Automatic annotation (TrEMBL):
Matches recorded under SUPFAM superfamilies: Bet v1-like
Organism: Quercus suber
Protein's name according to its UniProt entry: S-norcoclaurine synthase 2
Record-linked InterPro entries: Bet_v_I/MLP, Plant_def-hormone_signal, START-like_dom_sf
GO molecular function terms listed in the Swiss-Prot or TrEMBL record: abscisic acid binding; protein phosphatase inhibitor activity; signaling receptor activity
Keywords: Alkaloid metabolism
Domain Bet v I/Major latex protein: 2-153
The UniProt record lists the keyword Transmembrane helix: no
GO cellular component, one term: cytoplasm
One Pfam match: Bet_v_1
Gene of this entry: NCS2_5
Length: 161
């Protein structure tokens, strides 16, 4: 087995609570499908966005080495503004990963800005070490950027009103 960990951080000039309103709910799924840059479809198979929620995500063609995976929310802490999910079917698991976990944290920086921190942890079978290149921060960086753009746009709209 080979273990790896990667992380990505993006600063956003909005309140941490505003960013968490998106990340801490299923609202982020809707936002990502509407954006169309990463996911073609996200289907809730079980749950309401809390612990135990299972999603089936269909990626945009050619964006990954696979088209679909299932993931489960394993931790959701509104107080710490942290959500953790694990791939439980298809996708990374078909590529030889035995664990693929993503943790999103919204970290308050000051009164009007926060950091979206995304951490990926994975285990991959020795025979599939060549597939570790699929474990990268491209997708979590894209998710953070889409969220940032949405939050900044909404903030500008509110300020103009």
């Amino acid at each position: 087995m080979m273990f790896g960990q990667l992380s990505h951080e993006l600063e956003v000039n909005v309140l941490a609570s505003e960013a968490w309103e998106i990340y801490g709910t299923l609202g982020i799924s809707k936002l990502l499908v509407e954006d169309g840059s990463a996911f073609e479809k996200i289907e809730v198979l079980e749950g309401d966005g809390g612990n135990g929620t299972i999603l089936k995500k269909k990626f945009m063609p050619g964006s990954h080495g696979f088209t679909v995976h299932k993931e489960k929310f394993t931790k959701l802490d509104n107080e710490k503004r942290m959500k953790e999910l694990e791939v439980i079917g298809e996708g990374y698991l078909d590529l030889g990963f035995t664990l693929f976990r993503v943790r999103f944290e919204i970290i308050e920086k000051d009164n009007d800005s926060c950091i979206i921190k995304s951490t990926i942890e994975y285990d991959v079978k020795e025979v599939a070490v060549a597939n570790t290149s699929y474990a990268n921060t491209d997708l979590v960086a894209k998710i953070a950027k889409v969220t940032k753009n949405y939050l900044i746009k909404n903030k500008a709209t509110e300020n103009a009103a």
